[in-house]
Amino acid sequence: MEARPKIQDIARISGLSPATIDRVLNNRPGVSAKAMRSVDEAIRKLNDQITETSGGDGTYDVILPRQAGLSTEYLAAAFRFHANARGMQLRSHFVERLDPGSLVNALARCADQNSAGIAFQALEDPAVREVVGHLMVANIPLLTVVSDLAGLGLGYVGLDNRAAGRTAGFLMGLLSRGRGPVAIIWGGHLYRGHDEREFGFRSSWRIEHPQTEIMDVTCTQDDAEEAFERLSELLKKEPRLAGVYSVGGGILGAVRALDQRQSKGEPCVLIGHNLTANTREHLLNRKIDALIHQDMSLIAERSIKYLLSTPDKQRAFAGEVPTQIVIRENVSSHLNTDLFRDLPV
C-alpha cells in the first residue's frame, strides 16, 4: 500500500467500519482475510482516482471550428457536460473553420494562459505543426479530436477515418449494386481525417468495383451551398451518377442537388457522416441512405479522461471510437439527447 487515502474514504468504498479498517492498516489481529482484501481493493480504487485526476490543477482548453455544423456543436456540448461532471475547469474556444492561422493563434493563446492541457481539432498545416511542437517542448498535454496530426506522438480521440471511408465504400457498393459512376464530395485536405476517409473509400472501391469510375466534386470550406452547386453541375454532365459519398460537411447541399434529380425518378445513393438533427430528418425521409457516425459524447468523455491522466497513463491511451453505421431502421437508437438539451436533436 504505497498511498493511504483517508479511512473515511476507504470505509465508503469497502463498506467496512473505520475500526476494522484501522486494524487492517495497522496489522492488528482479529481481521479476516476477506476484510483485508476489501481494504486493499478500496485503496487501489481510490489511488486510481487520485492518479487519474492529478494530471494538472489548472484550467484546460478545447479548441473547435466555428460554424462547422451541428456535429461540432454536439461535441462542444459534450465537452461541457463531461467537464462539469468531473469538476474540471474548461475553456471553450471557437476558431475560423479550416483556417490554420486562426487555430495557431488559439493554441498560442492557450499556452500564454498557462493551459493545463489542450484538446483541439487539428488542421494539417506546417504552421500548426510548428506551434504544436513548441507546446510539446513546454510539456503542455495535447490531444487531437476527430481529425489528428500524425507523426508527432499526440494523443487522438475519434474514428479510424480510413476504416470509416472503407465502410462507406462497402456500403456504397451494396446499395448501388456496384453501378457507377459514383462521386466523392470533399472540402479540401486540411483535415487529415477527410484525406483518410477519401483514401479508404477509393481503396475499397478499387478492390470491389475496379471498372467503376469515381468522380471528384471539389467544395471549398466544407460549404453546403458550394456542394449543391458543384454536384448540380456534375449531375447535368453525368446523368448516370449512381452514388455520392460526402466526406465532410457538404451533405446538406448534396441532399438538395439530388432532390432535383430524384424528382425525375432517377435515384442516387447518398452516404455521409455524423447523425445530427438535420441528417436525421433526411435519413428518415429517405434522402440520405446511410451515415457513418461517431459518438461525440464518447469522444469528449475519453478526451477529458486523457487530459486529466498522468503522463504514464496517457502513453498507454487508446482513443479510437467505434465506427457506427446509422440507417433509417436504427436511427432511434443513436444520439444521446440528454447531453444536448440546448441544441436541436
TrEMBL record:
Gene3D superfamilies in alphabetical order: 3.40.50.2300, lambda repressor-like DNA-binding domains (1.10.260.40)
Record keywords, A-Z: DNA-binding, Transcription, Transcription regulation
SUPFAM superfamilies attached to this UniProt entry: lambda repressor-like DNA-binding domains, Periplasmic binding protein-like I
Entry-linked SMART domains: HTH_LACI (SM00354)
InterPro entries: HTH_LacI, Lambda_DNA-bd_dom_sf, Peripla_BP_I, SBP_2_dom
Record's protein name: LacI family DNA-binding transcriptional regulator
Keyword match tRNA processing: no
GO molecular function annotations of the record: DNA binding
Any one Pfam family match given in the protein's UniProt record, by short name: LacI
UniProt domain HTH lacI-type: residue ranges: 5-47
